């Protein structure tokens, strides 16, 4: 079990501050922050030359998820281990439901997938595929008993996950009453279905047609529609994986009108572009996910949206499939390529290297985007998402100057390729603690499957109270 630990000489960075101080950890939480702290029975950890960040939180993962007749390569063990190497100490995974099946059954399935496997803490969002009396009756329990306070609605994947507008609208209204945040995958699934059929009829089967049949307009249209329905329902909305200018515009427009709408982007949209889908020998399939990669100029729009606060978070949308044997299922028909990529490990480092190091965002914005804002939006703050007395000791000791090249040969995900292969980045976690215990120490894995705890989250808009018996000593 976690004993006392004293982290000295590091520079603490939160979403609002940056200062040099020591951190005393007692058990699972931070018990003191101050100058020249000492403790006779604490193990001292020297963090000289390093930043101390609150553990990053990934709001968007798909681990051990069935899709298109196969299952993601990374499960809750390999996925959370890779996440930890990247500085992520909590994830929120998507629990998929099926029409006509009790929500509790689906939640149980996700608990079974994760319970003895996760090495970091985890929580679930719940997919809503239909809205009726039975579902409505179950929702209060989902919130109170399970602490699941975010519901995901798909506007795409026709005949699979896609919900109609009435379901989205009804979910928005229910979420408002219950204190939950509605998340949308915003692409127009009907139009994608039309364009896809047209492409196949014309014999256009290569991976690039995945992008060409899901143009930015279908994302912009769905984002705008979801925003309008949110306004009409007087509810709150979180748009996942925003990839293009068209969607950013709709989010900004709604926010300017006072609609409570939040936007997440992903590292792949900030660092990769549509030309990757044209790689020869079917390698373009490695970059097939939805929404698709865009023309390069969209990247700067997304960076500016993060900088200006029009987008607020970064999810990985981790959904990994091997190239050999899984992505290759779509040879000769791009619609059969499993959608998704391996992103959980490098999310934080890419934002630091491409964002902070290149002067696109501040270091405090970086912390907010990968951790603090996520904790606030999804009912985990201030237990998670910051460094403060009484908070969980989820801590990343980060070397800001270490240079490395991303590669599948050195990553920790179970998948056989890395979408960012060959990318040079600066900055890397050295050690990572979850609730006071090292999971990664000096870049070595020292965690254990099953040590990750399930996080019951607070309602949207509510913040948890820290324990009252702790005193601030700074
Ligand atoms: Zn996703």
TrEMBL record:
Positions carrying N6-carboxylysine are: 152
Q: Which domain of life is it from?
A: Bacteria
Q: Where is the Amidohydrolase-related domain?
A: 51-439
Keywords attached to this entry: Hydrolase, Metal-binding
| Any Pfam family | Amidohydro_1
The Enzyme Commission number assigned here is: 3.5.2.2
Q: Which InterPro entries match?
A: Amidohydro-rel, Hydantoinase/dihydroPyrase, Metal-dep_hydrolase_composite, Metal_Hydrolase, Metallo-dep_Hydrolases_sf
PTM remark:
Carbamylation allows a single lysine to coordinate two divalent metal cations.
Membrane-spanning residues where?
none
Cofactor(s) the record lists: Zn(2+)
Cite the SUPFAM superfamilies for this sequence.
Answer: Composite domain of metallo-dependent hydrolases, Metallo-dependent hydrolases
For this UniProt entry, what's an example GO CC term?
A: cytosol
Extract one GO molecular function annotation from the record: metal ion binding
Instruction: Quote the protein name from its UniProt record.
Output: Dihydropyrimidinase
Q: Which organism is it from?
A: Sutcliffiella horikoshii
């Amino acid at each position: 079990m976690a004993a006392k630990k004293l982290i000295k000489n590091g520079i603490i960075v939160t979403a609002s501050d940056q200062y040099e101080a020591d951190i005393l950890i007692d058990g699972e939480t931070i018990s003191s922050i101050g100058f020249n702290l000492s403790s006779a029975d604490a193990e001292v950890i020297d963090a000289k030359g390093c930043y101390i960040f609150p553990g990053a939180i990934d709001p968007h993962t798909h681990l051990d998820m069935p899709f298109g007749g196969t299952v993601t390569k990374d499960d809750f063990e390999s996925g959370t281990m890779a996440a930890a190497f990247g500085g992520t100490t909590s994830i929120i995974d998507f629990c998929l439901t099926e029409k006509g099946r009790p929500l509790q059954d689906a939640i149980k399935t996700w608990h079974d997938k994760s319970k003895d496997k996760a090495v970091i803490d985890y929580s679930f969002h719940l997919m809503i595929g239909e809205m009726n009396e039975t579902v409505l009756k179950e929702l209060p329990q989902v919130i109170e008993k399970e602490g699941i306070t975010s519901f995901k609605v798909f506007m795409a994947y026709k005949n699979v996950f896609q919900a109609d507008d009435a379901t989205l609208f009804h979910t928005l209204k229910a979420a408002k009453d219950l204190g939950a945040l509605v998340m949308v995958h915003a692409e127009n699934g009907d139009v994608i279905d039309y364009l896809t059929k047209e492409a196949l009829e014309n014999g256009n089967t290569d991976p690039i047609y995945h992008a060409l049949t899901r143009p930015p307009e279908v994302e912009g249209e769905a984002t705008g529609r979801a925003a309008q329905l949110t306004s009409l329902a007087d509810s709150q909305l979180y748009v996942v994986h925003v990839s293009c200018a068209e969607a950013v515009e709709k989010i900004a427009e709604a926010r300017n009108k006072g609609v409570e709408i939040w936007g997440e982007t992903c590292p792949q949209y900030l660092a990769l572009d549509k030309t990757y889908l044209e790689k020869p020998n079917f390698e373009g399939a490695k970059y097939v996910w939805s929404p698709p990669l865009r023309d390069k100029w969209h990247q700067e729009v997304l960076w500016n949206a993060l900088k200006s606060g029009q987008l607020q978070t970064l999810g990985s949308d981790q959904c990994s499939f091997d190239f050999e044997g899984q992505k290759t299922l779509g040879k000769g028909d791009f619609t059969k390529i499993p959608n998704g990529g391996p992103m959980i490990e490098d999310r934080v480092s890419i934002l630091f290297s491409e964002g902070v190091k290149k002067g696109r965002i501040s270091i405090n914005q970086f912390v907010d985007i990968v951790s603090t804002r996520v904790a606030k939006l999804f009912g985990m703050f201030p237990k998670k998402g910051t460094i403060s007395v009484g908070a969980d000791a989820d801590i990343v000791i980060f070397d800001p100057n270490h240079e490395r090249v991303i590669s599948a040969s050195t990553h920790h995900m179970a998948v056989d390729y890395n979408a960012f292969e060959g990318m040079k980045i600066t900055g890397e976690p050295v050690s990572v603690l979850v609730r006071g215990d090292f999971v990664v120490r000096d870049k070595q894995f020292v965690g254990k499957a099953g040590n990750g705890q399930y996080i019951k989250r607070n309602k949207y808009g509510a913040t948890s109270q820290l324990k009252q018996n702790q005193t601030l000593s700074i």
